[in-house]
Amino acid sequence: MKQTITESELLRLSDLNLAEFYCESAHWMPGAEVVQKQDAVYILSPQDFPGCNLVVNLSLESNEAPEEFISRARAFYNGRKKAFVGHLRGHRDQEIIRYCRDNKIFIPREPPGMVLDEPVKDTSMPAGAELHWVDNEKELQAYREVIGEAFESLAFPREATESYFDHAQRVISPHVILAVVYLDKEPAAVALAMLTHGIAGIYWVGTTSKTRGKGLAGYCTREVSNAAFQLGARKVVLQASEFGRPVYLRLGYREFTSYPFIVCSNRQRTDH
User: Fold this and answer.
1) pLDDT in tens, 171-193
2) How many Å apart are CA 125 and CA 64, to the nearest integer?
3) The pTM is what?
4) Is there a contact between 49 and 229 (Cβ–Cβ < 8 Å)?
5) 223 pLDDT band (50/70/90 cuts)?
6) Are the beta carbons of 112 and 239 closer than 8 angstroms?
7) CATH number for the 116-257 domain, one of 3.40.630.30, 3.40.470.10, 3.30.1490.20, 3.40.50.460?
8) How far, in whole angstroms, is CA 173 from its chain's centroid?
9) CATH class of segment(s) 7-112+259-264
10) Average pLDDT over the chain, rounded to whole?
11) Distance, CA of 55 to CA of 65 (rounded, Å)
12) Burial group, residue 83, by CB count within 10 angstroms (0-12, 13-18, 19+)
């Protein structure tokens, strides 16, 4: 078995893990649809918030005609009357990103893609912190409570975030590692890892507003990352928010690409 992963292989595995995460987490919500065609994955959610309705580009061609990609995505969501988000790749979708900038398609964030190459050796814990692995509905509801509040600071409506975690039987799976950190017996920080394609991706990391700055998110992410390595992940990747980036750097994550978001209406432009 090949022991090392090249940077080009890492980029592809990271893309596939990200797409698989969106597909699987869509199925956590009853009524969601996942459609894959022409090297793209389309997520259609029961929620109207654009961040829950998104297209992920998986094309292996770096010179894809950007107008065609945007037109196909708009056509998919147009009949469904949904605004949507496009999740692009800094390492392969520069033509699409340039087209979006030239045509004033909103790019709200360009999160860095980061990778952890080996388990974190630090074993310290924040004072008073207690980590629980999520394997039952009660712990999942604690997770839901924390992440709903945490993602409001990223302009993600609470009801949209919480809708992913309403059904324990859909979320809790052998390849999904979820953890909640409690502080003074109250849920305070969360993180999850999803194992696919021989690696793991870290998603849905958050901390309650009153417990920020205590190192809880870093501790939770460290434990989930190390658990992923223990389950056989060869690398652990994530897409960092502006708040999370310095936390992940301190853990030993390094940047290797970016994953810009675009936000589109469900209408074609008519102005010229």
Assistant:
1) 999 999 999 999 999 999 999 99
2) 47
3) 0.94
4) no
5) very high
6) yes
7) 3.40.630.30
8) 17
9) alpha beta
10) 93
11) 16
12) middle
